[in-house]
Amino acid sequence: MTFTLDAALAARCFEVSLSLAPGETVAVLGPNGAGKSTLLSVVAGLLRPDTGRAEVNGRVLFELGPGVHTWTAPHRRGTALLSQDPLLFPHLSALENVAFGPRSAGVPKRDARETARHWLAEVDAAELADRRPGELSGGQAQRVAAARALAVNPEILLLDEPLSALDIHAAPLLRRLLKRVLAGRRAIIVTHDVLDAYMLADRVVVMEEGRITEHGPTREVLRRPRSRFAAGLAGLNLVAGTVTPAGIRSDEGLEFAGQHDAPLVSGQAGVAAFPPSAVSVFLSEAHGSPRNSFRVTVTDLEPHGDQIRVRAGELSADVTPAASADLGLAPGLEVYFVVKAAAVSIYPA
Amino acid sequence: MRRRRDSSYNGIPRWVMAVAAVGALLVLLPLAAMLGRVNWAQFIPLVSSESSLTALGLSLRTAAASTVLCVLFGVPLALVLARGDFPGQRLLRSFVLLPLVLPPVVGGIALLYAFGRQGLLGQSLEIAGLQIAFTTTAVVLAQTFVALPFLVVSLEGALRSAGSRYEAVAATLGARPTTVLRRVTLPLVLPGLASGAVLSFARSLGEFGATLTFAGSLQGVTRTLPLEIYLQRETDADAAVALSLLLVIVAVVVVGLSYRGPAPAGSGGRTARPGTAGNHGRVAA
Predict the structure, then answer these.
(1) Closest residue to A90, CB basis, from B174, B177, B267
(2) Which pTM was predicted?
(3) Is residue B27 part of a domain?
């Protein structure tokens, strides 16, 4: 009773293999253009891959390859899509929007409206039933859109950055609501927000350049990221390299001393991760052991909460605004990034 | 369309307004001149003569029938052109829009060679007991021929600017393509469809060349109002002017009704109103 997908689409450099257990919610994270929305379109049947196969609960959604050509039309797939834009049908009331799915499945008008009322209540939007989409705020419209997607009781609910168009007041409410309705429901949620992944998903998939580069339980991926994208989400510096007895040697030849988080063999591929808050910035080389000290050139300074984030290529450090002023930090300045070995975790790549 | 009432900067150079004024005069001046020649004292008797009323009735009936045909064939054509993706699509669009630029008399000749007694289909139709040329059916066909592109252009523009994202959502909610068309696509482009239908009606009402060539000028059968006006012009100028005014009034009422902008009731500001701004420009082109 699972969902499995294998699909390749050369025109978009897309090649993904994914499976979901019943009731499992997977968050798909990745930079823009990584193919996250392509993934949802392929599952929904809005985009036809070159080759591949997908099935849900034993029902084939598509099977495309040499000599095989099975294709289930989008409206027979049971994959409701909730996108960033609510896309409520502007000529129908909120209630009729939610009733649209059941009506299309042949449910009589009266029963469809009953179902719609139920789902509107489920998303705390019962009082909006008679409103037109033009009379709803962004958050209200997205709640109604969520009810509309849920009302068809989809085999897989597809969510494409459902919170990203909402303002900071509306997003938390809808996130809580999604957490409630996604419990025990099979869903794929595309997001760029690590909080969505934390709160809504059981598992995380990181996509980069059309491929899945990392996957695992949400906590695990964020605690010990292996891709630079996931490290960025988790707010960690990530250095890939080769494991040495004392730590890791980066691909650029820098030696990092650190804590081996797992049994590691020298010479195997590994990554070192450490938070920017563990990095100190000095104008001259510091001494003291065991410390990692690297000569770097500041590329950018940007506000980060109540700290200043100092970026130097792929590495970053957080310093206080006062320290930043004392050091006279500016892009182009050469400084030393120093990080205690105890703060560096090293694990297999 | 909504009139600008606020005083915000519009960026139109003064000289553009001046040229626009001349352009407007070019349209308005002849109409005013005609108004000046109307024999008001005889106006009512002139327009209510038997031949006039017959022509007007025929015009309204055939224009209505042509509009129905335009909607019937134009909606699928516009859908296929706007949403489809098939070889020869550009070519099909060019041919469908051809009557916009073709002299109507050429359209009439073409119709004659298709449906006329000696025409491509005419002979088969005659065997089946149907004669089309020089009947009221021919009037409707000729008007549909010249008016169809107006509906297609208007609706295709509306469909393009509406995009197909609502349709994709509707499909994932389990709606069959026909259900999507009926419950989502058509309601969304209704303003564009309505203005396209009105333009088609107006174009049908004014059709002259193709009708005369393909249908002739038989009173009560094929002599529509424009044909009647042309005929009266030779014998009774006052009657021609009076009937012209009548046609202008009908056209103004029809176009005015559509351009008032039939915004769907209660849809609020968010509703996309495809088929208003850009497409009318294309029709005019």
Answers:
(1) B267
(2) 0.80
(3) no
